[in-house]
């Protein structure tokens, strides 16, 4: 009996030892450590795009543009676009657009001709047109009321001395002629557009106008128009007549006839003036001598 109990106790102890050994030798469960990976978001550059369609030949204004993220569907080269942080929209104001752009289309550097580039003025000219500059008096240009981009008519006022039809001395004749119509002003005193310099540059123009009697004005004309303008400058005084905004696209009307002073006022008609001269005949020679009106 004791022997049986001993055997049972020995079996229980042996079983406990085997169980303990099995637990100690079982592979430990791996503890997985989750590492939160920090994913950096890709930086998407922003570029200047057109807010709405802009026609070729337009002068760029800052309000025509906005910043937009550059996506792959736009297909623009980073070396050609205007990137935010490297340039401001105001920096390209006054630049001339060389091709039509659509709404939300990025502007590229080759699309623009900047004001400091040598071909800027020539790029502003319409096909077949020329640029010519003449000195204008402040009175002739409406005392600085005109601006680049305005359309004007150019009037010549001249004075000439003519012999009287009756042979009684010489008379001074005045006349006005419209030599150019619907002509665009490209620049006034070197200012191409109000977008370049703003009010500060305009103030400088006014100060300069106060010190000078004339200012250079640049016109967009045909080759024949350039000849007429330069010749008219030598014949008398030029005046610029501002055209209305709705008339800028109208075709030039038939050139008005020259207006003479006698047509405007009877006081300037030669036949209406009292004569104070006599004709002296010496053979085939006829000469006129003014008589004194004093007594």
Automatic annotation (TrEMBL):
CDD domains: SAF_CpaB_FlgA_like (cd11614). Residues 251-295 are annotated as: Disordered. Pfam families: RcpC. SMART domains: SAF. Residues 45-113 form the SAF domain. It comes from the Bacteria. Residues 265-278 have a biased composition (Basic and acidic residues). InterPro entries: Pilus_assmbl_Flp-typ_CpaB, RcpC_dom, SAF. This is Flp pilus assembly protein CpaB.
């Amino acid at each position: 009996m004791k022997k049986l109990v001993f055997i049972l106790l020995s079996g229980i102890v042996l079983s406990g030892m085997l169980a303990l050994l099995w637990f100690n030798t079982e592979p430990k469960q791996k503890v997985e450590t989750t590492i939160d990976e920090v994913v950096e978001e890709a930086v998407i550059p922003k570029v200047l795009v057109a807010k709405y369609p802009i026609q070729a030949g337009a002068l760029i204004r800052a309000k025509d543009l906005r910043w937009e993220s550059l996506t792959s569907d736009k297909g623009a080269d980073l070396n050609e676009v205007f990137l935010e942080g490297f340039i401001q929209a105001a920096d390209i104001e006054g630049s001339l657009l060389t091709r039509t752009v659509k709404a939300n289309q990025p502007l590229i550097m080759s699309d623009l001709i900047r004001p400091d580039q040598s071909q800027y003025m020539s790029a502003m000219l319409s096909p077949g047109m020329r640029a010519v500059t003449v000195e204008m008096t402040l009175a002739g240009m409406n005392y600085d009321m005109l601006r680049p981009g305005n359309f004007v008519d150019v009037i010549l006022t001249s004075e000439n001395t003519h012999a009287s039809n009756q042979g009684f001395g010489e008379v001074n004749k005045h006349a006005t002629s419209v030599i150019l119509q619907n002509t665009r002003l490209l620049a006034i005193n070197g200012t191409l557009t109000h977008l370049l310099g703003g009010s500060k540059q305009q103030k400088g123009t006014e100060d300069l106008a106060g010190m000078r009697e004339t200012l250079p004005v640049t016109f967009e004309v045909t080759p024949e128009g350039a000849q007429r303008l330069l010749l008219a400058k030598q014949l008398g005084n030029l005046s610029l007549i501002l055209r209305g905004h709705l008339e800028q696209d109208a075709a030039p009307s038939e050139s008005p006839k020259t207006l003479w002073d006698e047509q405007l006022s009877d006081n300037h008609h030669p036949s209406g003036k009292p004569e104070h001269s006599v004709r002296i005949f010496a053979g085939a020679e006829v000469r006129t001598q003014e008589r004194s009106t004093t007594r």
